Amino acid sequence: MELFVAGFNAWNQLHFDDGQEAVPEPADIRTFTSVLTDQSIDKIEAFLSYTKVHSTPSGLRSAGLAPKGHEVLGEYLDEPEYLTAWASNGVIVVYTKATRSVQQYNSIKTFCTHHEGSRYSLEPAQQPVSSCISSRWSFTFPDPIIQLIAYETGFVALSSKGTVYTWGDERYSACLGRQVTDDSPADQPSPITHLESPPTGKITKVATGCGTGTILAALTKGNDLYAWGQSPRTEPCRRSPSISSCSISISPSSSSLSSPAATAARTETKPNTSSRREGAVLSSLNLTADPTPVDVADWKDIADFAIGERHLLALTTEGELFVVGDNSNGQLGLPDVEQSTDVWTKVEIDDDRIKSREAVITGVVAGPRNSFVMIRTN
Description:
The protein is mainly beta. It has helices spanning 68-72, 74-77, 108-113, 278-281, 352-355, and strands at residues 2-7, 29-37, 40-47, 50-56, 59-64, 82-86, 92-96, 101-105, 136-140, 145-151, 154-159, 164-168, 190-191, 203-208, 215-220, 225-229, 245-249, 292-293, 302-307, 311-316, 321-326, 340-347, 359-366, 370-377.
């Protein structure tokens, strides 16, 4: 498989070539470019300042600058028995698969205080555990959780049965996708009733803006995409700018692609470019507090999707790649779009194998301000 990337590259976080020195002042990558090849690409963890790629047989490869805060959670992020997420407001959650329970901490300091056995610690010395018991809580889910992600001020969890749970800051109630009641408070995991029985099957994937955004979406087994939330503000409220992340495991979902009719450097539809920030541009998604079907290029069936801070990618079951939103760092892979587009636009990756249908796109991942496309040669 081959990994193509586009977008923000200020920390060389898209530079995986071990045979070359990293560029001192790297430029953003504005067209999808191949950066890594391996037998399989298993997992991509995309952060604002660095990227981790797990592939076979090469194993883990990192690029960019890893922040201190992330090292504190490192032992949990890379262990299969845990799922972790870190929201922009500093809140951290850790899910333990063995107990089906999630613990929430209001800061990295609180997390370290409660994990004295951690390999890492923060300066200065931590306060006694007894002084911050109120700074954390735990919750046990009825079914195993297979995905745990963060948005700007809260979290989303997907169970093995397709139930979508949300919790977070009540001031961002549209991001919860559900009514806030005494029985279903904002700050406790509660299911989104609108996604309990979708017409085309259960929810198989959820995504949001890598811990920074306020757009959330879910994909059904029958390839329908639903979105909810609110249009992003001009600047996200980020307490820890280098730590927000998207961690995506790559499943062999290529069987859902009916043909490798893939992608490129020209656009199928002339995009509506603008210098406006995405609070205006992504209004074309018609976001509401309730999950609503997303019309991608005249209701295409969606095989995979990804959400960045202010941009979205959608891979259709026909192998086509569509993008929308912010392109100020080139994250859409559309070199002719300087700032943004509010129209779902087809991208054609400039690769002869794709054009001749000798290769197919198998999945997409978004970092806060960059994009990743996995390609497999037939």
